[in-house]
Amino acid sequence: xxxxxxxxxxxxxxxxxxxxxxxxxxxxxxxxxxxxxxxxxxxxxxxxxxxxxxxxxxxxxxxxxxxxxxxxxxxxxxxxxxxxxxxxxxxxxxxxxxxxxxxxxxxxxxxxxxxxxxxxxxxxxxxxxxxxxxxxx
Length: 137
What we know:
By secondary structure, the protein is α/β, with parallel strands linked by helices.
């Protein structure tokens, strides 16, 4: 007679603790910690928020797969400011600068003709939380 196979599931709180430890001990993630939101439900990790660079995002997601008990990862709402900056660069004209920090875009430099229109286009991009005008007046 064969022994029954017992499959144990790791508790979500332990998975969550490991992920928080990963964030706290990898310096680029530690800097982004206030902008990262994590939840775990039956081994499925949902990550949202913002990190500064594409490399940090890739590193974080690759490390999540190695956390014991993680069954799946939903990172559809995890954005990186580098990718947002690239999208914005297609919209702004010469003389306009865009600084991004955790999804908040600050526009400065030479004001475009249609500031409100530009702000609306930028706000429509995935991952952009807010647009602030820093144009002099």
